[in-house]
Structures are given as structure tokens and as C-alpha cells.
Amino acid sequence: MKNDYLSDDTIVAISTAEGEGGIAVLRISGQKSIQILKKIFSTDIDSSKERKLIYGKIVSPDNKIPLDTVLATIMKAPQSYTGEDVVEIYSHGGHILPKRILQLISDSGARIAGPGEFTKRAFLNGKMDLAQAESVINIISAQSEAGLIQAELQLSGALSDKINAFKDNILDIYAEIEAQIDFPEEDIDPIVKKNLHNKSQLILNNLNLFIDTYNTGKVIKNGVYTAIVGKPNVGKSSLLNLLLKEDRAIVSPIPGTTRDYIEERVNINGLILRLIDTAGIRSTSENIEKLGVDLALSKIRQSNFVIMVFDGSHEIDENDIKVLKQLKNKNIIAVINKKDLNLKINIKEIYNYVVEEKIVYISAKNGDGYSDLCELITDSIIGKNIINESPELYLTEVRHKNSLTNAYNHLNRFLSAITLEESLEIMSMELRSALDFLGEITGEVTNEDLLGKIFSKFCIGK
Ligand SMILES: Nc1nc2c(ncn2[C@@H]2O[C@H](COP(=O)(O)OP(=O)(O)OP(=O)(O)O)[C@@H](O)[C@H]2O)c(=O)[nH]1
Ligand SMILES: [Mg+2]
């Protein structure tokens, strides 16, 4: 599919975000790009050099009225983002002007681009593979430093290199099996067989390790759904406010203040938490509070991570234990709050529910213990510092994880086939399927439906 893509239509879009801004960038790609610029530009571009900024006015071809003073640049195929002739126009920003220039370009023969069309063309023209093209949207939509690092790694080709290395290793085995097919009357030499067996087992182990990185990768990309829970008045809303660094939730000394839940995003040491402050959990006959308690319990079920808050200035009571009992099999930490007061809590009483290393003392009131808390949160979710100088590669896309899992399953079937001495054709077929699934990730094996799905998630102009 790659390298043979010749589109005769020329597309245009505003590539910058809409609204008031100093500059807007309009991008045109396709065979007619330069011809269109000539129609609407006051400066003679024949004599201008490629890849230089050209100063001039955008002028309506009909009435010769100038719309704006701009800079434009020409990038001829194949040395451009899309691999086609590309023109970029840098106009003034704002709500009206860029759209008027867009209309003028469209009237002059370009089609308004759909989401991700520029990047799709870059892929189809072989400027990048599919995994790299997918990373572009992740760069734009990254919500955290950690997410951005992963997207940049993927764009640089780190994921593609890893997939290609898996492919090379499987291809070695495939070549051996194909060679055996040419001499069907002979059995596979036992030494060769053992060697193939060991090789595929090693690849399977490595595939498995890599597939497992998705658990962390999805958290890095999408954030962690985190419930703040506890009995009333322990300081849950105060803790939310501390982490958000703003007075978002109402705090009061009256137990049962929070009724509805409050959800906010926060960036903790490069990791995105979707924090939910919930109503204090206790038995109550009051109807509205009861609804809040039910909501809190359902938020516990939905969350991937739980911050359980205790009031350190009081002893643990049956209400605390009642909440703890709701948290079985959850990834939790215990926050002993109000450490600025006289501590009366005996934390040994909760060791059955939370290990000592997952307990942190803070004062949500004066911020004491804030960094310890942040460190405990990221450690408990990721297990290590994810922002460092040589970041590891994680799988962040479910599509990639599924293709890798399919490749794993076929290679595993190959391993059984070789153990059970099944036919060489079956072995060859399983290896071919494993290779095809890996090829799906980088886009060697693809189809229009898949491409449509991937690029529809993009913004227009990219
Ligand atoms: N001294 C001290 N008081 C605190 C601290 N954190 C919270 N408080 C006080 O404890 C009371 C309850 O705080 P909230 O944050 O509303 O507690 P909550 O757990 O959200 O309570 P509900 O919404 O009723 O379940 C308020 O009077 C806070 O000012 C702390 O670290 N130290
Ligand atoms: Mg509250």
C-alpha cells in the first residue's frame, strides 16, 4: 500500500487551534498547492527559493482586495511532511481571518481536509510507518510529561524498531521452516528442531514481557481513576484541594459535608490522576447523604486506585474498618491526615488491610507531607520514577497490544506444532500469521477500515 499513493486532490486546513492567537498556520498539500498559492499571493513565487519564508499579501483573485499580510513557504515533494507539494501560510490569528483565507484557498481548488488527512498522506507516502503516524495524535493530546515522552519515543521509531526486531527473529525461524518444506521427505534434524524450539520460546518470553508493559502504558497515557474515600470529616475534600492546589471542594467541620462526588484531573510527578472526592462513608438514615454514600461505594468499584483517608487525631473506629472492608483487592494507600494535631491513631490496627510502606502521614491543612504523599502515589501506581533521562518504552495503544497478543498466540501454536511434530505447512502458516499481526502495528498489513479508525481520532489540520 505504501509508496504508490498518488492523490490528485489537494487538501487544505487551518493547522493551529481556533481562537485569538498571534499567528495562524494554514497548510495546503497536493499537486495543486503551489498553483493555488500563485493565484492568491501578491508576491511572484517563481523566482523564490523553496523552503524560504516569502513575504507578501493574500489577495482575493476576483476583486484583488488584500485580506492579510503573511509569510508563506513552499516545500516541494517529496521533502515535506506529507511527501507531496506542501504550502504553509502564516497569517494573523483570530476567529475570522484564518477562516476567510481558508475559504479563499478552497475556492481556488483545494478540498477542506478531514481529521488526520495530512498524517494519513504522510503514512501512505512512506514518510512514516503506522505506529509513528499514530504517535502524532498522542503528542498533541498528551496530558502529562510521561505521556508525551512515550508519544515522542514512538514517533522516533522506538516501537517500530522493537516490532521489527521481533519480526526479524521470527523470520529467521520462518526461513528455516520454509527451507525444510523444500525437502519434505526428510524429518527435521533434532538439533535444528531443538534450536527452533528454544528460539521461539525466547521470543515468546520477550513478547510477553512487552505485552505486560501495557498495564503501565495505558495508565501513563490515560491517567488513573483514583477515589479518595474514608468516613466523614477525616479531610478527604481538604486532601483533594491540597492536591489540586485550589479550593475546589467545600471543607467544613460538619461531618457529611460532601454529598455528590467531585472529579478533577491533577498531574502528580508527571502522572495524570483523575481524582474523585467522595462523600464520607457511614450508616445514615438521611436520604441525600445515603445517596452520596452509595455513590462513593460505586466510585470505589470503578476506580483503579484508592486513597483511603484517616483522621490521625482520633483512634480508628468501626466506621474506618467498614470502609477498609470495601477495599479488598484494590490498589490502595492509607493517608493519616491531621498530623499537625495530637496523633491518637494506632496504625497497627490497619496492618491487616494496608502494609506499612503504603501508609503516609500528612496535614492537608498546612501541606506537611505533601511530597511524601506524591511519591507514594506514583510509586504505588507505576512502581518507579517514569520521568528520567533514559525512559523505557511502554505499550500505550490497545490496538498494538491486541496485535502483539495475536502474534504471541500464533507463535505459541507454532511451538506446539513443532513439539507435536505437526506438518511443516501448519508451522509455516502459524509463523506467517504471527508476522502479519506484527506487520499490522507498523502498517505493512493494513486496510481502509483500520486507517479510517485511526485517523478519525486526529484533529483537523494534522
Ligand atoms: N487540624 C487539621 N484539620 C484538618 C485537616 N484536614 C482537614 N481538617 C479539618 O477537618 C474538617 C473536615 O475536613 P473535610 O476536608 O471537609 O473532610 P471530609 O472528609 O471531606 O468530610 P465529609 O465531606 O464530611 O466526608 C474541616 O474542619 C477541616 O478544616 C488537617 O490536616 N489538620
Ligand atoms: Mg468532603
Sum this structure up briefly.
By secondary structure, the chain is α/β, with parallel strands linked by helices.
Order of helices and strands: EEHEEEHEHHHHHEHEEHEHEEHHHH
List of distinct ligands in this structure: guanosine-5'-triphosphate, magnesium ion
Query: What is the residue-mean pLDDT, rounded to a whole number?
Result: 92
Radius of gyration: 29 Å
Count of helix runs: 14
Count of folded domains = 3
Largest sheet: 6 strands, mixed
Spell out the CATH superfamily of the largest domain. Answer: P-loop containing nucleotide triphosphate hydrolases
Query: Which architecture of the largest domain would the CATH scheme give at its second level?
Result: 3-Layer(aba) Sandwich
Structural class: alpha/beta
| N→C terminal distance | 21 Å
| Number of extended strands | 12
Query: What is the third-level CATH name, the topology of the largest domain?
Result: Rossmann fold
Q: What general outline do the C-alpha atoms trace? A: flat
CATH class descriptor name of the largest domain: Alpha Beta
% residues in beta strands: 15-25%
Characterize the structure shown:
- The protein is of the alpha/beta class and 462 residues long.
- The protein has 3 domains: 11-129, Probable tRNA modification gtpase trme, domain 1 (Gyrase A, domain 2), CATH 3.30.1360; 143-219 and 397-443, Up-down Bundle (Four Helix Bundle (Hemerythrin (Met), subunit A)); 236-382, Rossmann fold (3-Layer(aba) Sandwich), CATH 3.40.50.
- The chain is 44% helix and 17% strand.
- It has helices spanning 33-40, 97-107, 117-124, 130-141, 145-155, 158-181, 190-222, 236-244, 287-302, 318-325, 370-382, 398-419, 424-442, 448-455; strands spanning 11-14, 19-29, 54-59, 66-75, 86-94, 111-112, 224-229, 262-268, 271-277, 305-311, 332-337, 359-361.
- Strands 3-4-5-2-1-6 form a 6-stranded mixed sheet, with helices on one face. A 6-stranded mixed sheet has the order 8-9-7-10-11-12, sandwiched between helices.
- α5 crosses α7 (190-222).
- The structure holds guanosine-5'-triphosphate and magnesium ion.
